Amino acid sequence: MLKITNFSKSYKSDKKAVDGLNLEVKSGDIFGFIGHNGAGKTTTIRAIAGVLDFEEGEITVDGVSIRKDPVTCKKKMAYIPDNPDLYEHLTGIGYLNFIGDIYEVKKFDRETLIEKYSDAFELTSNLGDTISSYSHGMKQKLAIIAALIHRPMLLILDEPFVGLDPKAAFTLKSIMSEMCKNGSAIFFSTHVLEVAEKLCNKIAIIKGGKLISVGTTAEVKGNHSLEDVFLELIDVQN
Ligand SMILES: Nc1ncnc2c1ncn2[C@@H]1O[C@H](COP(=O)(O)OP(=O)(O)OP(=O)(O)O)[C@@H](O)[C@H]1O
Fold first, then answer.
1. E strand residue ranges, the chain
2. pLDDT for the residue 115
3. Which parts of the sequence belong to the ABC transporter domain (predicted)?
4. Alpha-helical runs (H) found in the chain
């Protein structure tokens, strides 16, 4: 579903933020992307989402190059950044309908999914309010609902659990599991290693722009906790 081949990105000419990254996320995978601050997670995620240009390597979504045909790729996926930038003057429902129009989601599907996910995130009674009146967590919930209403084959999330209350985090985890059971693929970054360990069937650890471990969660952590493995790998490679 998502294939990253020899992807590198430099912001300044002297140092690569991401260096020669190879990764494949298959249908049904919940793939956790972990690494220290500045490791290259957001850079990778933004390149996958088609919002960051890059010179080296190839990224394909369902076989389509994000560089050559970004529109086709974007129709197949949804991207939720760590700090979603929403149209503050719109109401919640106005925003969801705006996104529904862009992705040409049919009326019945749209109404059904908006109801389903707004109820799940307890946002239904706030949908008539303007987004500028929402808290940070409410904005995040709205961005998640907007991402889900066009049933993406690939969901890309940058630090999705930051700012969500425990119930909303539980709801999101349940939705992620349900999506992958239905054949979608999910790739997300997180610093919450307990969540990654429980939720993901695959894990990649990035350090200084390079992958230092990748595989099934069982392969990456062996008989240890993911936290122990992560801390040891980060230290050993210093
Ligand atoms: N717009 C930019 N201009 C210059 N350098 C950048 C820019 N964005 C990121 N970088 C650099 O690229 C490297 C990787 O940053 P990135 O944001 O991808 O890390 P991250 O793993 O997402 O970190 P965090 O966990 O703190 O969010 C860092 O050295 C960072 O300073």
1. 2-12, 15-25, 30-35, 56-61, 64-65, 77-80, 154-158, 185-189, 202-207, 210-216
2. 97
3. 2-233
4. 41-49, 70-76, 92-102, 107-120, 136-148, 166-181, 193-199, 217-221, 226-236
Position 14 scores a pLDDT of 74
What is the residue with the minimal CA distance to atom 2 of ligand 1? 11
Those residues whose C-beta lies under 8 Å from the C-beta of residue 232, and which sit 6 or more positions away, are none
Residue owning the nearest CA to atom 3 of ligand 1: 11
- The values of phi and psi at residue 205, to 5°, are -115, 125
Query: And the tokens for 235?
Result: 């230290």
Which residue has its alpha carbon closest to ligand 1 atom 19?
38
pLDDT band at 235; cut points 50, 70, 90? confident
Complex-level ipTM: 0.97
Specify the 3-state DSSP secondary structure of 67: coil
CB-neighbour burial class of residue 183 (10 A; exposed 0-12, middle 13-18, buried 19+) = exposed
CA distance 98 to 92: 10
* Cβ < 6 A, ligand 1 pocket: 11, 17, 35, 37-43
- 192 φ, ψ to 5°? -90, 95
- The pTM of this model reads 0.94
* Joined tokens for residue 168: 């909303």
Which atom of ligand 1 is found nearest the CA of 40? 18
| Cα–Cα distance for residue pair 140/23, rounded to 1 Å | 27
